[in-house]
Amino acid sequence: MNKIPDSELILNPDGSIFHLHLLPHQIAENIILVGDPGRVNMVSENFDRIEYKVQNREFATHTGYFNKKRISVVSTGIGTDNIDIVINELDALVNIDLKERTVKNNHTPLNLIRIGTSGALQPDIAVDSFVLSEYGLGMDGLLHFYQHQFPEEKAILDAFVKQTGWGMPLNMPYLVQSSAPLFNKLKEGMHTGITATACGFYGPQGRVLRLNTAIEGLNEKLTSFSYEGHRITNFEMETSALFGLSKLLGHHAVTACAIIANRIIKEYSKDYKITVNKLVKIILQRLTE
Question: Does the pLDDT of residue 177 top 90, yes or no?
Fold first, then answer.
């Protein structure tokens, strides 16, 4: 069996994975992902007990127990580039023998649940409500650096490209479905749909401060898209990479977002931290039932 070279699988002197600084025994198979390192405490303060606390840069991890089930919460920072780091390193922790530098014969799937904040792209999705992403629409380009084919999503993706006139010089989009078991377990009482993932916060999400955007009416194009009951519900910056990498690596992934702004009716939450905290409690309870 071929060993993975030192330059490709980088480990720290203590044997931990390079960015996350984690050892295999320090993570659970149920993992909540949050962007903000400060949100790790918001999640873990609900735990019955905490086994491990590890932090390096923006990557903080707490592993413990909730309702007698072992759970980790890991902060990813912002963007699909960070998701690329986090998902590859979490997968390495469970599916690569770090000492031997070889892929394990037996595959371990992880349950990866992103809890984030997001802006709604439909007027009927109220601020301080929740969206559970059935699909991730990648406008970021990250997954094109990996060999991938998702033929079951092709019809929706083709309709999106045609309806919006998507083309050069933009990244070609990709579309990935969430994990059906996790989606069905968590979806009660939440809006569902396609989550658009952008590679930035301002221009890539149609915001204009001092720079004009290259795509006229980007948000309107996304809002008006419709195909066989599918519509684009919200904007954020991580979901497409999370769904794509997880699917390729054999993990289960879903995203639940607190809507802190509505980009169409121009409203913003008066205190989004209350909404995020409520969502955290809902996800923890449903995940461990």
Answer: yes
Asked if the peptide bond before residue 173 counts as cis, ω within 30 degrees of 0, the response is no
Please choose, from the candidates 251, 254, 252, the residue with its C-alpha nearest in 3D space to the C-alpha of residue 107. 251
Distance CA 126, CA 205 (A): 19
- The residues facing 50 across adjacent strands are 64
Main-chain dihedrals φ then ψ at residue 184, nearest 5 degrees? -70, -30
CB-CB contact of 234 with 126 (8 Å): no
- Measure the CA–CA gap between 65 and 61, rounded to whole angstroms: 13
Averaged over 197-218, what is the pLDDT?
A: 93
In 3D space, the residue among 129, 155, 150 whose CA is nearest the CA of residue 230 turns out to be 155
pTM: 0.97
**10 Å Cβ neighbour count for 126?**
15
Q: d(Cα 260, Cα 6) in Å, to the nearest integer?
A: 43
In this prediction, residue 171 has a pLDDT band, given cuts at 50, 70 and 90, of confident
Domain ranges for the chain, please list them: 24-287
Domain 24-287, classified CATH 3.40.50.1580, yes or no: yes
Beta bridge partners of 236: 197
Whole-number percent of the chain with pLDDT over 90: 96
